[in-house]
Amino acid sequence: MIKILLVDDDYSYLRFLRTYFATTEIDAHVATSAEDALNAVKERSFDMVLTDQKMLGIDGLELAARIKENDKEIPVIMMTFYLTPDLIARAQGVGISNVFDKGISLPEIAQCVREHAHNRHFADAVFAKR
Prior knowledge:
five-stranded parallel beta sheet, alpha/beta, 50% helix, 20% strand, single chain, Rossmann fold
């Protein structure tokens, strides 16, 4: 089971994603603000974080930067309705693994989550063998 943290200040969208992920092998925990997300990653271990870009207070870029200060290896994926080349470059600059438009399908989101979680587990296994 892949354990992820979903972060978005739009609770109805979080509920929509969480309901879909419940039909997959993805165990989704939710946070309705970046502040709640920062507390959650301190208290629990997640395979990855999937965050919205535009939120009240701390945005997805700043959230990712703060998460990466404590765990450089955790994949952070950012979703947005405002995808631009500049945003992608800024996201890469703070260590975000992937950025996608919120308009993509739920199966595509789940596939992206699976791929990044698999890559993290593979890297962890290789590192553990050394």
